[in-house]
Amino acid sequence: MTSPIGGDGFMRMRSGSEFPFSIMAAPVDLELKKAFTELQTKMIDRQQKVKLADLQIDQLIRVQKHAKLTHAEIGALPDNARMYEGVGRMFILQSKEEINNQLTDKQKTADEKIKELEQKKSYLERSVKEAEDNIREMLLSRRAQ
């Protein structure tokens, strides 16, 4: 495992932020250490939630594309064509209109969820930035003492 401390005397955080190593090496009081640990834990937790939101958005985009492609393929078929919907291990005969409605609903639902996740993601990203700023401020105030 590589050391977070570079040859230039700066400590690098996961986010790419740098702090002078001399701050990190100074004797730390218990209260500061506890607050630093709390903020760092909070920041890591939020970063993980951002990654999870990204994965969920990617999954919903795939669902949306699949529904769109299926809708396009079904559109080329005649109206009286027999169509079956897969339900578990069986198939149910459905009309073309019903299948198109289901695919449209699936696309709308995925689009709504994507919008919600993007809002949640932007909130979490702001929260990560705030936590990073708080850590930086805490360390700089410690250095000034």
Q: Globular, elongated, flat, extended or rod-shaped: what is the shape?
A: rod-shaped
Helix content: 55-70%
Mean pLDDT: 82
How large is the radius of gyration?
26 Å
* Content-based structural category: mainly alpha
User: Which band does the percent of strand residues land in?
Assistant: 5-15%
Strand sequence of the main sheet, in spatial order? 1-2
Distance between the termini: 32 Å
Q: Give the ordered list of helices and strands.
A: EEHHEEH
Walk me through this protein's architecture:
The protein is mainly alpha-helical and 145 residues long. The chain is 69% helix and 11% strand. The strands form two sheets. It has a two-stranded antiparallel sheet. A two-stranded antiparallel ribbon has the order 3-4. Strand 3 (83-87) and strand 4 form a beta hairpin. Helix 2 (30-75) runs antiparallel to helix 3 (96-144). The protein is rod-shaped and about 80 Å long.
In short:
This protein starts with 9 loop residues before the first strand and ends with a helix. The chain has helices at about 20-25, 30-75, 95-145, and strands at about 10, 20, 85, 90-95.
